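User:
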Amino acid sequence: MIRTLAVSGYRSLRDLVLPLEQLTVVTGANGTGKTSLYRSLRLLGETAQGRLVASLAAEGGLTSVLWAGPERIGRGVREGRYRVEGTVRKGPVSLRLGFGDEHAGYALDLGMPSAENPFPLDPAIKREAMWTGGRLSHASIFADRRGGLVRLRDAADGTWREAARDLSPFDSMITHCADPLHGAELLLLRERLRDWRFYDALRTDPQAPARRPQVMTYTPVLASDGSDLSAAIATIRAIGDEDALEQAVDDAFPGSRLSIEPGENGGLALRQHGLLRPLRPAELSDGTLRFLLLCAALLSPRPPGLMVLNEPEASLHPDLMQPLARLLWQASRACRIVVVSHSAALIAALGREGEAGEIRLEKRFGETVAPDVDPPRWEWPKR
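Assistant: Predicted structure:
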């Protein structure tokens, strides 16, 4: 599982290396870079989907997401003796993303496209590397990409072979050089990244997809917008941890229980003590629906390697912070979880249930920093 996240040159993340625990909470005041950190993780996941360029285009292109400050912030600036002023860039334009664990690591270096390229806002992949062990070194690299040339090292005798010579600057070696015969390690990495899940658009408004009638079908993974909530809950009840689901619902709404109404277009219903009939998703309050969506995501019968939730406390009553904390700890037994939140109540509730890794972000001279974190060792592959 991912244990280290490294980001350089992305928005306010000038140079940040962070450790990730089994359950990690990222917090900080508004504008300190929490969303940028969330997006950087999502960009890594998009690489394996072949959507990296499209994702950056949706943010305005490479030039819109690059670190806008100086390459280095000198001591005189930090001490207030000098102003931050324009400087001549010494290094190349670079946006770098990477992650690692005790077994392997991966890094990606994006830069400006060539002058001949008709799409000047699209990033070009200048360097990619994948290595074994916890630290990058010349001996540990087994997949290496420079420009359009991709080479893979044979695990048996250590010899190198070409996997691609003219790979497009917009295509990753993860998506174009991974095959079971020659690029098995890249294939494994690609599947690990594709397995990451991100939830930041679980709507609960009157037009929310989760409130609409749904066709019931096998759904081990809740959609990112929660549109298949009923089917996801039914799948947990059929092949997942139904006891954990019932416990989470009763913890949040004492005396309540979920049921699945019969019929082809049947769906989720919440039975509450004192009511003569169950409530369908269209009738549920925003907070109740939100909690059920989180139950469906976190108790998936097919847990991912990494799940990232952006402000899961939205729409929830303060009384639901402790049940949510218990639900998060329950889910973290099966997968690594990163929670981005500014809710002091949720953070306190998590602390009462266990010792989560907490990353508190601050903004200094426009740069996002984590002053309380001892950063893991990390080295970027050179161009």
